[in-house]
User: What shape does this take?
Amino acid sequence: MSTGPTALAVGWRTAEGAAPIGAIFAGLAALACLATGLLGLDHLPFPVCAFKIATGRPCPTCGVTRMFGRLFAGDWAGALAMNPLAAVGTAGLLAWGAADLALLPRRRSLRVEVGSGVARMLRWAGVIAVLVNWAYLVAVGR
Assistant: This one.
């Protein structure tokens, strides 16, 4: 286990010739928003979540379809209320996608590099964020 500067390093770089992963994921998120809004998937009269049907409780991703519907309508506050973690993640994906699209003419894409220590902290932070978000969804009755 290394604790030197490389273990805790965080950096952004552009990779030449690499696939624009951020733009691809942002495009998928935009497509999900578009499909949800145009098809009215956020207004279904019944739950489609197998976990919620079986337990009566929201799953960690409950509210994401309705969040996409709110984003389609331009209601960021409503999207944040539906599923805060998914809304923040989608905003991050859109920013990453915009950066990748800006770099695309130069055949580059954005990459984040983190050291092993930061990666470990980010994994734990991700687990905690999912659990806190799930607790919020249960508390508000999604």
